[in-house]
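Bumping with the actual sequence this time:
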Amino acid sequence: MAEKQTDLARVRAWIATFPGYDILGAFHCDYTDQVPSNGGVFPSGLVEVSRTEDILGNVTVVNQYNFGLYYVFEKTPGDDAGATVNADWVMEFQRWAQEQSVRGLAPRFGNSGAREMIRAQNGVLYGAQDEGTATYMVTLSIQFSNFYEVI
């Protein structure tokens, strides 16, 4: 029998389907190397957004996963062309994540049947090194609902 894939593994596998993902040589959990063309996912856990109970005592919980996605790319100090390529990649990833969410092509995490929402936002240059690399960060949030029936 196949082992159930964790939610983190599902997020990582989904990110790997981004058409621009192939430029990354590695995509780690909880760290990035300061070498070009790698990234990392930093999960910050589950947040309960809301909890509602119906007249029968059944409970619907709205949850949210939050992740920091870090990408290290080449960026020579003062190189506007390279910086533009990197920023375009980050922005394209954000647009792709939005479209995947809207079209229902992203993985689902809840069991309620409610519409889920994935947001990749706040893409920013996190830091640049004189050695010719720059780290970019995107916040990824996944909001979903779980229904718990009282027996």
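The tokens above came from a reply further down the thread. The mean pLDDT is 93.
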